[in-house]
Inverse folding.
């Protein structure tokens, strides 16, 4: 008797806007092996990102920090929108490295992440239904913990024991 094949996971085709390395946008599609983590639309993601960064620019601690690193807010918001569409909708449209960006910034400290997450959660509560806000918050907090540990590790003197 021939061996049975493993069941094939359902794949779905999701259209989305892609950005090439030269910055030009085009419409494409990505075959994904997994469904979205929770129901939220790309428009809701973009609205959350825009609302969050509007709040960041006004924040007494985060505003100056981000202003030192972000020179083109629309491009930054577009990139972060792609990050969240990748993390939530699994579109595969983000090709950056958040860990590397935060580690190389030089002035991002682990103390910034609770402030960032508090502002992000406040914005989520204003822009999304409670269930979607809670699901997105859980992902953001996992990412925040990982980034905080990465920033801590980047600041560790060479040869010293890691502290987590």
């Amino acid at each position: 008797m021939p061996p049975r094949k493993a069941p094939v996971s359902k794949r779905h085709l999701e259209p989305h806007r892609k950005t090439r390395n030269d910055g030009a946008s085009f419409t494409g599609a990505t075959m994904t092996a997994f469904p979205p983590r929770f129901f939220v639309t790309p428009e809701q993601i973009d609205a959350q990102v825009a609302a969050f960064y509007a709040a960041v620019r006004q924040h007494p601690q985060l505003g100056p920090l981000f202003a030192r690193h972000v020179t083109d807010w629309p491009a930054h918001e577009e990139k972060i929108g792609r990050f969240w569409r990748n993390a939530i909708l699994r579109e595969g449209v983000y090709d950056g490295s958040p860990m590397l960006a935060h580690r190389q910034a030089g002035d991002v400290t682990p103390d910034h992440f609770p402030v960032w997450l508090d502002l992000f959660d406040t914005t989520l509560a204003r822009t999304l239904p409670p269930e979607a806000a809670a699901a997105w918050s859980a992902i953001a907090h996992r990412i925040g913990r990982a980034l905080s540990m990465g920033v801590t590790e980047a600041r560790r003197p060479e040869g010293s024991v890691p502290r987590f």
